[in-house]
Amino acid sequence: MIEEQINWPQVRYSIREVLEIAATKLKNAGVEQPIKDARILLGYSLDKPWERFYGKEREIIKSEQLHNYGQKVLRRCQREPVSRIIGRREFWNLELEITPFALDPRPDSETLIEAALEKFPDRSRPLNILDLGSGSGCLVLAALQEWQHSTGLGIDIDPHCVELAKANARRNGLSDRVKFQAGDWSNNLDEKFDIVLCNPPYIPTNDILKLDEEVRFFEPKKALDGGPDGLDCYVQLSSQFRKLLTAHGLIFLEIGFHQKKQICEIMRISGLDVIGIKKDIGQRDRCLILSHKHC
């Protein structure tokens, strides 16, 4: 029984007591932020914001809530990410639903939105925005939240991700300005875009087994695997990017921090200029900014 594994010997527990037991359990399992994770998981088990526990630590938890919480804590002890357990992730200023079919959005990917805002500072400007490999829809939805007179299109090869992104657009009140469709990158796409956002798979196949277990075991492999050298998707995309851009359009492309030299060369050979590189919050090269080649 999950209660025995979490060790609930009593019948009645207060919020304070279960948080102490859960945080100890998580700490012993090697979880980096045991107290924070314990609070977040309890908040979702009780259906109340976790930051509102202050002053309510003596409240008694119902037995069914305790059981629900114990299950969540055990999953976290097994290194399943909190976002996967609760099915939610905050990205930019959005709350997104996530499922096993889509990559869990990372703060590093917000670098693409930051870079785009620097290049297109007029937020009243109507832009046409494309998100290739849209997954949960995080990039195009974050962009549309900033450029409120713009429209967007997200394309993903997985129909499950397309439906997830549509749900996230509805959740965040953006479904009237964005479309999502299934497709293989930009094949059969004739539109031109001012902004192209893309976070392709870029982990070398053999390196996936070396990733942290929270990524290795709980992220969809198809969203990670970039082929033998991690560059397969960049080669495919390089032949498609130019046809997608308006005359002054820009591409914001996520890369692995060690791949800058190779990917820059791939894009230059395809006829694109690398006009900028933006670092992520860890000061690692994360976003290439590409334009038409100007002679």
Structural account:
This protein is α/β, with parallel strands linked by helices and 295 residues long. It folds into two domains: 2-78, Helicase, Ruva Protein, domain 3; 100-292, Rossmann fold (3-Layer(aba) Sandwich), CATH 3.40.50.150. Helix content is 37%, strand content 20%. The chain is built from twelve helices and eleven strands. It has helices at 2-6, 15-28, 34-46, 63-77, 82-86, 110-119, 138-146, 159-171, 213-216, 232-238, 241-244, 260-269; strands at 13-14, 60-61, 88-91, 94-97, 128-132, 151-156, 178-182, 193-198, 245-254, 272-279, 285-292. The strands form three sheets. The protein has a seven-stranded mixed β-sheet, with helices on both faces. A hairpin with a 2-residue loop joins strand 3 and strand 4. Helix 3 runs antiparallel to helix 4 (63-77). It is elongated. The relative contact order is 0.10.
